[in-house]
Design a protein that fits this description.
9 strands; two-stranded antiparallel sheet; 6 helices; binds S-adenosyl-L-homocysteine; Rossmann fold; about 30% strand; alpha/beta
């Protein structure tokens, strides 16, 4: 992984002030060069704590929410190692996950975004990531079960396939809603699913439809 840049460290410090406390998350944020995930015209905003457009009507998530969701995964009682991400997008969240967890699987429905994200992962020399062009509503059945699942687009309702692909003891972090969205944390114990709401969020929709 790249060495922390001054701007990466400043972003990590800002997130710490915003309440992110896990040092594994903060150092992943400090170490990953966010500017490589951002279109040229917006690179000067790469270390601001904001979501930014990445083309195809999609956005790279706000660093705060990337950090917050990653921290929630780390707080799962099963100490997750094998993670499924839905909505690769720019690949920034994927890189943060790969810097922390042993194995990361990521699904994206827009082929061109997936292609660029894959290039960035090679550039950063990550070898613990598998990517798939597919529909996140279906998860990744052939690689299931997962210790934890993170969804980076807002689902109209909880995708049944995703809860089914959680390991016993596993955790799902997902924004749910439409105009009003909230971040949900679902913990699986056997066939019981315990759900709690974390905070209001704003994500692009988890699309149900053909792949692009
Ligand atoms: N974590 C990403 C977020 C990208 S925005 C980042 O920070 O860059 C959400 C992504 O989810 C978009 O790339 C969008 O194409 C993707 N997406 C939306 N619906 C999807 C679906 N049904 N299956 C897989 N990916 C989906």
């Amino acid at each position: 992984m790249a060495l922390s840049s001054r701007r990466g460290l400043q972003l990590a410090q800002l997130l710490e002030q915003e309440g992110v406390s896990d040092t594994r998350v903060l150092s992943a944020i400090a170490n990953i060069p966010r500017e490589i995930f951002i279109p040229d015209a917006l690179k000067h905003k790469a270390y601001q704590n904001t979501a930014l457009p990445i083309g195809q009507g999609q956005t790279i998530s706000q660093p705060y929410i990337v950090a917050k969701m990653t921290e929630l995964l780390l707080q799962s009682s099963n100490q997750p190692k094998k993670i499924l991400e839905i909505g690769t997008g720019s690949g920034y969240q994927t890189a943060v996950l790969a810097g922390i967890f042993a194995q990361v699987f990521s699904v994206e429905r827009i082929k061109s975004l997936q292609f660029q994200a894959k290039r960035r992962m090679n550039q950063l020399d990550f070898h613990n990531i598998s990517m798939k062009h597919g529909d996140g509503w279906q998860g990744w059945p052939s690689k299931a079960p997962f210790d934890a699942i993170i969804v980076t687009a807002a689902a109209a309702e909880l995708p049944t396939a995703l809860v089914q692909q959680l390991n016993d003891g596993g955790r799902l972090i997902i924004p749910v809603g439409d105009a009003e969205q909230s971040l949900k944390c679902i913990d699986r114990k056997g066939e019981t699913f315990k759900e709690r709401t974390i905070e209001p969020v704003r994500f692009v929709p988890l699309v149900a439809g053909d792949l692009l």
